[in-house]
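Pasting as-is:
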Amino acid sequence: MRWNRLLLMLLVLTALSGFAVLAWSQQVEGGANKPGAGKQSKAKQPTEAPKSQPAEKRDDDRESAKLLNADSLFRDKAAGVYYCKGNVVFSHKGVLLYCDEAEYYDETDSAKATGNLRVVDPEATITGDLLTADFEEE
């Protein structure tokens, strides 16, 4: 039961982290943080993700995930992919997600977090190298 709860929390956190990447990428889309565009700056302030609008309505009000840090962020409009790289940290309701890289796929509504993955909540810590989530699946 405890692992089911942690897995569900991890999937929700990953889904919300993808939306945070979307919101943040729209702010930095001007080109300053694109790879190869000179020195890249670290995110200084947490960015709150927009409220998601999934196909089915959620019964409860959920707090948006916040992107606390990333060394760089890039949006590939043609592919519909958002890339967040380097010391990536997301926060959601007391749960922290740390990873080296995160990708959000807009068209398939899925995400992938890779490299030194760590999910920390008050009760447990989960570590690994790869996390994938399909947000259309329950």
